Every structure is written in structure tokens, then in C-alpha cells.
Prior knowledge:
The protein is an alpha/beta fold. It has helices at about 45-50, 70-75, 90-100, 110-115, 120-125, 130-145, 160-175, 190-195, 215-220, 235-240, 260-270, 285-295; strands at about 5-15, 15-30, 30-35, 60-65, 75-80, 150-155, 180-185, 200-205, 205-210, 225-230, 245-250, 255-260, 275-280. β1 (about 5-15) and β2 (about 15-30) form a beta hairpin.
Amino acid sequence: MESIVEIKKLTKKFKKEKAVDNASFSIQKGEIVAILGPNGAGKTTTMSMMLGLLHPTEGETLLFGMDPRERAVREKIGVMLQEVSLMDTIKVREIIQLFRSYYPNPLSMEELIRLTGLKKEELNKRTEKLSGGQKRRVGFALALVGNPDLLFFDEPTVGMDITARKLFWDTINELAAKGKTIIFSTHYLQEADDISDRIILFHEGRVIADAEPDLIKKQLTKQSVSFITEHSISEKMFLQEAFVTDVFKKDERVHVITDDTDAVLQTIFTSNLDVSDIRVEKGRLDDAFSQLVDTEKDVS
Length: 300
Ligand SMILES: Nc1ncnc2c1ncn2[C@@H]1O[C@H](COP(=O)(O)OP(=O)(O)OP(=O)(O)O)[C@@H](O)[C@H]1O
């Protein structure tokens, strides 16, 4: 696989505070990676260093095997930061045309309109007259304008309504299917879970988990199988299994807490237990996130 991003032992200190602390990871071509973490976790600082906008105190970052400030790299990347700042007194159509002229293989205006949902009346507006959501749509178009291979989005859907958000993620999926690599930071855990192939979770500057969303949930959240039975169920029968962490009865239901719900189901069926209304509860990413942040458990 082709490595597009290499982050090696990256640290950023502001005075004595470590905003990013020894972060290392690599990202392969075509991956959609979510950088997740609470406020102040170091997401924006990491992204800024990846982009060469901020100089690391220690460590290095390579994009396409090169320094991110190289021109050859800049032509291959698209960026949308939290604050979209646009030149005033210029129409949206003009700013997009201007940006198109900077790149060797820009996307056509029609393609940009299709991918971003920009409307005709927005194209004719002066940038200072745009709403927050419209500004972000223009920011999105400017990120895509050079037909980049690698895209960075810092909390991209803040200020977008539901329709805009859906189109944004549909476009991201379309781009990833074409082999583009996508990195985005978000506070929306559900988005990270739905969209990304992989989550890199930051807490207090450190990478505390780096795995596919399902694996993070599996590692960190309690899953359970619960059911109703007339039998006086043998708690011991379940507890002796390595994959069971707890068994208890509540409101007529037996709950088996486990890290392998399939194995619990198999035990129920092979031992011919007379049970009904079986429910399997998988942990949610929100739970995994809170649990990680609470315990600062290192699973990376
Ligand atoms: N220019 C700066 N000078 C001093 N401290 C900074 C600077 N930029 C960021 N920090 C500090 O570094 C830490 C990480 O900030 P960063 O913006 O990277 O976090 P974040 O995960 O992006 O947060 P948020 O989700 O709120 O955007 C914070 O404690 C922040 O106060």
C-alpha cells in the first residue's frame, strides 16, 4: 500500500505546554481517517503541522514522502480549515475561477457545483454577503478546486444544515472511492463512526487509540446479550467462559456482559437453554469515547 502521510514522533510545545505529544502514525492511499478528540486535545495543532503551517518542536511530517511546504505537495492537497476566510468584494464565481488558475489540472466549474451543491445565486454573490453555511460550501469548493489527491478538513460540517451535511459526506465517499485520501477532524462521534475507515483518537496531545471504529468500540465498550428465561440460570455456566465479564439478573432479564456476543449466543444455543427475547447490545462509539477520556486507557 502507498503511504500518503507519515507522522513521526511529532511534538508541539507552546511555552511549556505540550499541545501534541509524540504522535506517530501513517495514512495510506484511499483511507478516510477521522481525527477525534475533545476540545484542546491537539487535533488542529496536529493538522496544522501536517500541512506545514506550524513548525513541530520535535519530529517530522511527510506528505507524499516530501516536506508539506514543497510546491509539488501543495498542488496535490486540498484544505478546509475551521474558519473559511475569503477575499471580500469579489464574487464567488470569480474567486473559484481565480483558484482554478493556480492549479495544473483543476476541476471544471460544473463538477465543483455538482460536488459541493453550490447554487447559481450563490456563485453570483459577493463573498462578504454569504451566510456561514454558504461560506463553508465555497470553502469546500476551494478545497476541491485543484482536484487534490489528499484532502484535509478541520471540523468540516460545523454550521452545515442536514442537507448540506449529507451532500458533503456523499461527496467525500465518492472522492474516496476514486482513491483520494481524506483526513477530517470532528466532534461528531456518529460521523466518525459512519464515515471513517479509521479513527485516530487524541486526548491531551497524545494518540490514545488508532483503529477502525468497530474495533475501538469492541475494545472499549461493554457489549451484552440479554434474554428472558424460566430456568434458574446458572450464572457459573457463563462466568467460567473467558469471554464473559459479568452476569446479572435485572427486571426478569438475564444480562451477560461480554467482549464476544457471538460466543455468548453460541453457548446459549449449544446448551439448549430455553430462552426468549434475546437482545444483543453493541457498545456505541460515544460510550467508547467517554470511557477512553475518563480512564485515559492506552489502547494504541
Ligand atoms: N497558538 C497557540 N498558543 C498557545 N497554545 C495553543 C496555541 N494553539 C493551541 N494551543 C493549545 O494547544 C492545545 C491543543 O489545541 P488544539 O487547537 O490543537 O486542540 P483541538 O483538539 O483542535 O481543540 P478543538 O476541538 O477545541 O478545536 C490546547 O491546550 C490549546 O490551548
